[in-house]
């Protein structure tokens, strides 16, 4: 296992998180309000699947008796699956840019707003959303490589596609129905009813759109990322 690569990724994400939060604090001090506080919570939720994927990576190397090891891996993997959609979900936070006035009407002409605060806010958005999204892509990449290493690349591909479809559906439920990952534990029956109730034409269209979007970004990311196993012992893909 390429431990140095795993640590490098971890430190890069720590640095990106520190930069994101620092920018938000600077903004809060300057304007005397904490308007974008929700980003901290959303980014925290993006860290959960990433940390769980690292746990699965470590657990996969542990020498435990079967079926104990298998049960632990399945349990942690299931929790990972529940929280993973929070990472791509952060992309939808761009909808809050609707309140930004990049242009102003002057003498019947639209003039680009030169407010530095406006562009600073946009940079804050980009930092948080990019960091959260990358955490999700790397998390899925780790699980993908684990499955490829344990089974076959075809199984890994089918797994990724299934996760992206389920995540797209979860994003729809989270954005429009306001469902949370922990609802599975607190009100599973109600959550199941909501899921069945919301399988409609517009939902299917949304899922197809986001699955395509996430697939393109993930597989481009997957193509460029380095394997967590050495190439001589783990043929990626």
Total number of domains: 1
Largest sheet: 2 strands, antiparallel
Classify the helix fraction into a percent range.
over 70%
Mean pLDDT: 87
Rg (C-alpha, Å): 20 Å
Q: How does the helix and strand content classify structurally? A: mainly alpha
Overall form: globular
Instruction: Give unreliable regions as ranges.
Output: 231-237
Cα distance, first to last residue? 16 Å
Task: Please tell me about this protein's structure.
With 237 residues, this protein is mostly helical. It has one domain (3-224). Helices cover 71% and strands 3% of the residues. The chain has nine helices and two strands. The protein has a two-stranded antiparallel sheet. Helix 1 (3-31) packs antiparallel against helix 5, helix 2 (38-59) packs antiparallel against helix 3 (68-83) and helix 5 (116-150) packs across helix 9. It is globular, with a radius of gyration of 20 Å. The chain starts with a helix and ends in a 13-residue tail after the last helix. Residues 231-237 have low confidence and may be disordered.
């Amino acid at each position: 296992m390429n431990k140095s690569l795993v640590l490098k990724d971890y430190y890069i994400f720590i640095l990106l998180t520190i930069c994101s939060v620092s920018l938000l604090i600077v903004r809060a001090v300057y304007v005397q309000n904490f308007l974008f506080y929700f980003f901290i919570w959303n980014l925290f939720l993006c860290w959960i699947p990433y940390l769980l994927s690292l746990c699965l990576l470590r657990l996969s190397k542990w020498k435990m008796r079967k079926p104990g090891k298998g049960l632990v891996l399945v349990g942690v993997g299931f929790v990972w699956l529940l929280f993973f959609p929070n990472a791509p979900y952060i992309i939808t936070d761009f909808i809050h840019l609707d309140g930004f006035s990049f242009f102003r009407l002057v003498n019947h002409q639209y003039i680009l707003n030169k407010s530095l605060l406006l562009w600073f806010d946009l940079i804050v958005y980009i930092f948080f959303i990019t960091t959260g999204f990358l955490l999700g892509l790397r998390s899925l990449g780790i699980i993908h490589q684990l499955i490829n290493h344990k089974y076959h690349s075809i199984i890994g591909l089918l797994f990724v596609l299934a996760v992206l479809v389920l995540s797209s559906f979860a994003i729809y439920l989270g954005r429009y129905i306001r469902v949370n990952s922990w609802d599975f534990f607190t009100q599973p029956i109600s959550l199941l009813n909501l899921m069945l109730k919301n399988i409609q034409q517009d939902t299917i269209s949304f899922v197809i759109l986001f699955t395509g979007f996430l697939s393109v970004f993930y597989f481009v990311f997957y193509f460029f990322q380095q394997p967590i196993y050495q190439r001589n012992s783990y043929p990626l893909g």
